[in-house]
């Protein structure tokens, strides 16, 4: 059934995209660092492999587009909830073209497509935190109020609250869902402040898992039929302290996933896939 | 305050504590005076009771005792706040008891009417009502005959038994009906309606649009209260869990308003359009907890309408899902052979933008529900609907500080702020300390967060004052319903109260759940009316009318019966503890309730006076004349105090202007002292209008100088029965005044939380003297330690009892030796009285000058309500106590003679969620108005100025919302060879909760006396400072 908020974390499909060579030089980044393209590609392959083989998701892999250096970060191009997909209007102009391929892929999956056509609206999927009960939309450099409004219109069943993102690129640059009702949050002041706001704005209660590193707070939670709670999180190599925190989650199948290279261009774990739950019925 | 003697105590109890006792006493009085009626009544009750015991089918017996208690309280208690607990039945009882006088006046009419209808009624009742009523009739008649013999005491007993009482009530209704039919005497039992009606009962036809789209028509008396109609509708619907529902009407501005069950319908609709709609008022967060399917069904109907109209937004899929459950519930399993099901579906409205695709989806899902019962389908429907983010959110248009359109959503959890579709802020009920409105501004005071030190107030601008009031009311009701275990006790009628005393009058969710869990009737069968909905769109609304011959008559005269006894189920309903709707009159002070409610109201209001005066009188034996005089003086003083606001318009007007001219609506403001000032002003005005009214009733009271409210009150108590006629006459006036008042209210406030007190202690010095403040522990020592003899400049610490709950400044100086003894001195009391009297003539109620008044070093007890506001600072210099703007707990305040007020500007975080920057214009400014009243004793010693004093003590006790500061200053002087010690005590009470000034004053005086039994109180200065407005 299409019951509201049923089965948070249930996914059957994932949309990913290849890494263009242009990523190394041209992808947007907040810090000037060299990206080892080869390593990045390897990372991505490993990532996709986890989704496909280890977790058994149906992975739709879009080809990289050299004219879109950031195209690997598919999360920003679409927000999918239930059977509705909102095709975003990314805040960075250079990324607007990424939505085309995404739209096509999602259409092929028979999702209801909602497009953000308003030219005053911008929204990056990375600013959208869906908790299973409601949305939080970070108002950041990439996402504005209008974009959030359109998202609210697209997902009318849910409360959509806005959260100022004072630091970091996206809202999910320092938080993500670690389970039903569990928000993983970085320990920086802006992150904690954002969490407070979210808690204040919500009718629901959330548990929080605080990790020392903001970037480590971005993880991928799934609830899969055969696997139970699954969490893709940072490796101990990247964030040793934070990794220890994740290791305390006893109920989760923990899958440390390397993200060393992509993080250099502000890519987090969630950025690299759009997860979809396509049920047989509905 | 606790020591007061006889009458006072009684009154007090009524007001505050045991409802039962007062009831008793009242009853006793009534009985004694109005022997005949009362007795009859009582007897009947007793009988009924007995019957009930045997046959009672009512729910009442299942009710937990606490519920019953509440009921009884609400009935009796003068305070009108208990309403939620009351049931219709209880109401009836009340009215019966209290208003009896009225009845007498109208008895003839009533009787006539009854006679006319009696036959019809009887028939009707026999048919409609449960056998219980029928049984009751014979028994009752017998009783009536016997009744003459019964003693008032018996009556008491009856009343006392709470449980019994309730039961009795149930039956009473029935009995009443029967009795009236048969006998004129029985008319005592009057329905609320009847009380209202005067010579002619004009009947009005009400049209109520039900949730299934049908029209329900019934006749009510023109002066019937909202609950009457509501009960009629619920009865028609066979609905027991009715607390979630309400009736709405459209006001003159086409705004949907909730019909207040406690007020006359006519006065609310303000037009001749008797058109109503039955709606869900409180959406249960978890509908699965509802007891009956019929209740869920009605909720479903409401939600279907909400969804179809777009009021409850949902996604395509959800629309389809909800639609499919609707089909399953209303027409059962999908019939594969049904021709063209889509055509059928398209006739129904499921969504605002319904299209073919959606209908197909609905059909598809509908097919999958095969086998689901209607009740299951409804349950599934609700399970989905309740998760929608806008479920149960009542939206109101408003503007924020920048004039941007926003929506304020009131729901079970609190207040939500939306901009377009986005939630931009949320204030959970626990975060909200106070809700108020003033004109078209709506304010909420926010509890400081962990990291915040100060409370902040957020303001919104509504379209007009009506909208603001409407929003405020909705907030009050939602908070009460969802957050309280029992409805908030009535606002006390202190003379410094706020504008609207509106409170939720129904049962809370907790109560209604409790009550409904006791429902033990077989699940009522009801027809799901999809066909009606269809026909509505196609053919117009089907009409259902109850006005057949028999029914009609019954309704008109006897609604109460119908409600009470008609069916077993009905009875149950009435009995259920939660029937708040029934509780009519008690809650809203402003409500135009007749008879008992009013009297109770009045009593309540007067209680203060009485208490006050008693306090003053305690221990001291004055002649009756003196006492009266004293009372009069107090009342006059009060009156002048109350009238002050109008007479001193300059400040308020100024601020008002500013306020209105200020574009910004949202203010982040730090509250340094207290809020509520504004409100109090309004209240005062209201009080004025009300206070005089009672005077009309009582002879003694009428002269301005002489009449004290207390007197009136007492008289009323005593004379209730005798002067019934008079009372009745007076009532109409009262009603009018009250109602007008309620309409004119432009502001009111509501505290979601009971006030906790925060107090600061300051030791204010008199001009040249040193002041020191010391924090003292919260230990309360009743006695002053130290010093009288030492005039030493060293400050001595005195630990004084902290008055945590009051916020007033009391300065008391006592002359004589300072000794710590605890004995009450009658003389002191006297003096106080005298002082009051004198001051009465010339009460100092100057807003601006108040501070100066406080500064007066002389002896006196000053009670003041201080509010420090930036704007007013200059004025405040005289008062050290005012300097304290900080509500911080345990703050040590050092006030130096020339007080420098530090303005603490804290920008609250409330709106910070959305604003990363806060403009300077949002720095809060609080305007203050000050008033001072001085009670001065016949001057024993008027020249205390400038004498060096010793600072005795400073104590600050701070709790959450109240701040009480007590400062003691001791001055020793030599006069004519006599050593004289003067103690000046200043108590500053600040807070956002309502403060009973009278009580605070009395308390202060009392404590002063206790501490210094051998001293006399020579001067009492009450200084009240009110926050007028805040501006950006």
UniProtKB/TrEMBL annotation, chain A:
InterPro entries: DDAH-like (IPR033199). GO terms for biological process: arginine metabolic process; citrulline metabolic process; positive regulation of nitric oxide biosynthetic process. GO terms for cellular component: mitochondrion. Coiled coil: none annotated. The keyword DNA repair does not apply. The active site is at 170 (proton donor), 271 (nucleophile). It holds the Pfam family DDAH_eukar. It comes from the Eukaryota. Substrate binds at residues 28, 70, 75-76, 95, 142, 265. Keywords: Hydrolase. PANTHER family: DIMETHYLARGININE DIMETHYLAMINOHYDROLASE (PTHR12737), N(G),N(G)-DIMETHYLARGININE DIMETHYLAMINOHYDROLASE 1 (PTHR12737:SF17). This is Dimethylargininase. It comes from Astatotilapia calliptera.
